[in-house]
Write a structure and sequence with these properties.
Blueprint lengths: L9 H4 L14 H12 L3 H23 L2 H17 L10 H17 L45 H9 L3 H7 L4 H12 L4 H8 L3 H16 L11 H14 L2 H7 E9 L2 E6 L1 H16 L4 E8 L2 E9 L5 E12 L2 E8 L4 H4 L5 E2 L1
Parallel strand pairs: 1-6
Antiparallel strand pairs: 1-2, 3-4, 4-5, 5-6, 5-7
Helix pairs in contact: 2-3, 3-4, 3-5, 4-5, 5-9, 8-9, 8-10, 9-10, 11-12, 12-13
């Protein structure tokens, strides 16, 4: 195999997401004054140097880690390493590539010590409603993110589609089935758009090693189900879903669900399958306690898809942040629900803790 060529099959390449190269090449002479000022300890100059890349580096950390709070921690660690190691940047690979190298190694140092994140469906078979148990730590599960804060809106429509697909929850779940190094190689090559030689430099590997890791990673991703196209009835179904929740109407909710629909509620490790089972669980745990008017649902966007922020009314009448609902609509019915039961996520989406 030619080490400089892509180790791709046409069938797999159709599924690859290549983001536009966001860095306009800058010579050391052009960035020299800012770079030298940053090396002398000028924090403002360093901030200006990295600002064009901050958003995409955060997205890189999110794809690697699978949760936004981890991504933010990893980004801060990466920028600290970049600040401390700026004297070692010689300009041969470009600032963007160097920053990706620093960031990727910060991610690998942390992620190789941890278990991969997942969703409850990967932890065991579906349970009955009365078998739903206690929460686990959030660190076991994938987490949602507002794509608008991770991706650029300045690109052509086709590029925007590729970017949005690259943070879809199904793609992130597939990434988590890879080893951290395979994950990094695939993201750098097929999402960020680096050449194999650049990936090798970033990861400190040979080009044949990179191509081998890519081949294995692509084989894994090729086995995942294709991402469904947006359902034209999605808006109408979501409106009926909101109405069912705000009226605490179990029958209306069940009518929206496919017979084989699933419900997951991270960080609860158990999950449910079946419209009647889901209805029975929500009726017993939620609707019977809250009653009509006990919830308000606010439309948001999460992982490039429409979603809902649920607020529950407390005894004082204040509606407080409760869960983020990701609703998978197919053929006019709900095929899957993921309710992230973490009020702390609301701040990440720019949402208030309470509603008046």
């Amino acid at each position: 195999m030619d080490g400089g060529r892509r180790a791709d099959s046409p069938r797999i390449r159709k599924k690859i997401f290549v983001l536009p190269i966001l860095e306009v090449p800058r010579t050391l002479a052009r960035m020299g004054p800012e770079l030298e000022a940053a090396r002398r300890g000028d924090h403002a100059a360093f901030a200006r140097l990295i600002q064009p890349f901050r958003r995409e580096l955060r997205a890189h950390c999110y794809r690697m880690a699978g949760a936004l709070h981890d991504a933010d921690d990893l980004l801060q660690e990466s920028l600290l390493r970049a600040w401390r190691g700026l004297a070692g940047f010689e300009g041969r690979a470009g600032l963007r590539t160097w920053l990706y190298s620093v960031t990727t190694h910060a991610c690998l140092d942390q992620l190789e010590k941890r278990s991969a994140r997942s969703l409850p469906q990967a932890m065991g078979p579906a349970v009955l409603p009365h078998e739903v148990g206690q929460r686990l730590e959030d660190s076991a599960f994938l987490g949602p993110a507002p794509a608008a804060e991770l991706l650029s809106e300045d690109d052509a429509p086709e590029a925007q589609v590729s970017q949005r697909e690259s943070v879809a929850l199904a793609f992130l779940l597939a990434l988590q089935t890879l080893t951290p190094k395979q994950r990094a190689a695939l993201i750098l090559r097929d999402v960020v758009g680096m050449e194999a030689s650049e990936c090798a430099e970033v990861l400190g590997l040979t080009i044949p090693s990179i191509n081998g890791a890519l081949l294995r990673a692509r084989e894994v991703l090729a086995q995942r189900p294709p991402m469904p196209a947006p359902d034209p009835q999605r808006s109408a179904v979501l409106a009926r879903y909101v109405e069912a929740w705000e009226r605490a109407d179990t029958s209306a909710l069940v009518a929206l669900l496919r017979e084989d629909a699933t419900l997951a509620m991270p960080p609860i490790p158990q999950w449910l399958r079946g419209a009647r089972e889901i209805g029975a669980s929500i009726e017993a745990m939620v609707f019977s306690l809250a009653g009509p008017g006990g919830f308000r649902l606010v439309p948001i966007e999460a992982n490039s898809e429409p979603a809902l922020a649920a607020y529950a009314r407390d005894p004082s009448g204040v509606f407080r942040a409760t869960a983020l609902h990701l609703v998978d609509v197919r053929d006019g019915q709900i095929a899957g629900l993921i309710a992230f039961l973490s009020p702390a996520l609301f701040a990440k989406f720019g949402l208030a803790d309470t509603l008046a």
